[in-house]
Design brief:
Helix content: 40-55%
Number of helices: 7
Shape: globular
Largest sheet: 5 strands, mixed
Number of strands: 5
Structural class: alpha+beta
Strand content: 15-25%
Radius of gyration: 16 Å
Order of helices and strands: HEEHHEEEHHHH
Length: about 170
C-alpha cells in the first residue's frame, strides 16, 4: 500500500466513534471496551489516516466466530497477523480506513499501546518529534512495506521512554 501521511484531523475521533457504535452492535457483550490508539488518537500528530482501535474482549477465541460475517461486511480478517493473542480486522482495502485489534482482557499488548498513546498525549514535543520522523520517512519510502519497518527502531525507543514514564508515574 502507498504511504498516506496526513495532518491531524478532528474527524478521526468521529470515525473512531462511528466504528465503535457499528462494531458494538455486531459484537455486543463480547466487548469489554474499545480504545482509540495510534497516531490518529494523539491531537496534533501526523498520521496515516487509518484509525487504530482496540477491542478488549473477554475471550479472544469467540471473536473468530464472527469472521465470516465480518468478511461479508467488507473487512479483511487477518487473524493474529504476527502477534499471538491478537485478532486483526482491516477495513477499506487499498484505501484502508481502520485497523481493529482485538485482545483478551489481560493481554500485555493493551497496556503497551495505551501507555504509548498517553505518553504522546502528555508530551507534545515528543509527539512533534515523532511526526517529523514520520514525514522524513514518508519522503523516502512510498510504500508501507518499506515505511513501517523503517520506523520500528524509533518507535521501540519511544515505547521504552513511554514505559519508563508510566512506571515512574505508578511509583514502580
Amino acid at each position: 500500500m502507498k504511504v498516506r501521511l496526513s495532518d491531524y484531523s478532528n474527524e478521526w475521533v468521529r470515525l473512531y466513534e462511528d466504528e465503535v457504535a457499528f462494531l458494538g452492535a455486531i459484537f455486543g457483550d463480547e466487548i469489554v471496551r474499545f480504545e482509540h490508539f495510534g497516531s490518529t488518537s494523539v491531537p496534533g500528530m501526523k498520521a496515516k489516516p487509518v484509525i487504530d482501535m482496540m477491542g478488549v474482549v473477554r475471550d479472544i477465541e469467540r471473536i473468530d466466530a464472527y469472521n465470516d460475517r465480518m468478511r461479508l461486511l467488507g473487512y479483511d480478517v487477518a487473524g493474529e497477523w504476527g502477534i499471538p493473542g491478537r485478532r486483526l480486522l482491516r477495513k477499506g482495502g487499498e484505501e484502508r480506513t481502520h485497523h481493529i485489534h482485538f485482545y483478551e482482557t489481560y493481554n500485555p499488548q493493551i497496556e503497551r499501546h495505551l501507555v504509548f498513546r498517553d505518553y504522546l498525549r502528555c508530551h507534545p514535543a515528543e509527539a512533534a518529534r515523532y511526526s517529523r520522523f514520520k514525514e522524513e520517512l514518508a519522503e523516502r519510502y512510498a510504500r508501507t512495506n518499506e515505511y513501517s519497518p523503517a520506523k520500528k527502531a524509533f518507535v521501540s525507543e519511544m515505547e521504552r521512554l513511554a514505559l519508563a514514564w508510566y512506571a515512574e508515574r505508578q511509583g514502580r
